[in-house]
Task: inverse folding
């Protein structure tokens, strides 16, 4: 495996740029020397490279270590993620690296929240159908029972309308809650009655164009 190196410092020609007065123009280099070993080397910086509170010239390093360049704490997990790229970037600022990670976390949250919408859609459809089916059975039973009793037609209509009205009210409540829950996890717009499976196949929101599915 060819060695990959991430050079860090204040100058723009570094792979990772840290714009801080105490960080040297070329402060240190982190090298992936094997699948399991990564080495950090101080490049004669003015204010030092500190690993777990100890100033070092060269040392093995891992994600759980505490790294400071002068007094600037560096997130090693984010820095090491650059080794996974086909080509190590140049002039990437530490702020951009932090934002990149923030964007990844936001996307992961969107994907997870979208997956939950499957249950939201299925539960709404199931509950609505159950309410309609129950109402049909009640009306049928009520009409059958009342047909055996002498009763004025208008009174029969009033009784059955009462049953139907209760179900309509329940369905309205279900729909209102559905409109609050069945929303895009990025822009929070109601997604209408489109089945979840259709949206999964499309993979993006029609409103904000965010991706719902992990690449």
Result:
């Amino acid at each position: 495996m060819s060695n990959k190196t991430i050079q860090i410092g204040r100058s723009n020609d570094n792979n990772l740029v840290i714009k801080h007065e105490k960080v040297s123009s070329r402060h240190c280099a982190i090298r992936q020397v094997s699948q399991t070993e990564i080495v950090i080397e101080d490049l004669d910086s003015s204010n030092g490279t500190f690993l777990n509170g100890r100033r070092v010239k060269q040392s093995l390093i891992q994600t759980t270590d505490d790294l400071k360049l002068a007094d600037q704490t560096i997130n090693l997990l984010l820095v090491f993620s650059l080794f996974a790229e086909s080509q190590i970037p140049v002039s990437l600022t530490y702020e951009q690296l932090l934002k990149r990670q923030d964007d990844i976390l936001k996307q992961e949250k969107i994907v997870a929240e979208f997956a939950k919408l499957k249950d939201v859609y299925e539960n709404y459809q199931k509950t609505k159908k159950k309410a309609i089916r129950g109402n049909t059975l009640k009306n049928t039973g009520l009409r059958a029972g009342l047909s055996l009793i002498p009763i004025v037609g208008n009174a029969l209509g009033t009784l059955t309308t009462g049953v139907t009205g209760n179900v309509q009210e329940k369905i309205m409540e279900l729909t209102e809650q559905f409109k609050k829950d069945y929303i895009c996890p990025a822009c929070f717009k109601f997604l209408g009655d489109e089945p979840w499976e259709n949206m999964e196949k499309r993979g993006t929101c029609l409103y904000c164009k965010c991706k719902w599915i992990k690449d």
The two ends are 27 Å apart (CA to CA). Confidence is low (pLDDT under 50) at residues 155-163. Helices lie at 76-81, 94-146, 153-181, 196-202. The beta strands are 4-9, 16-17, 28-32, 38-42, 49-51, 54-55, 58-60, 67-69, 72-74, 92-93.
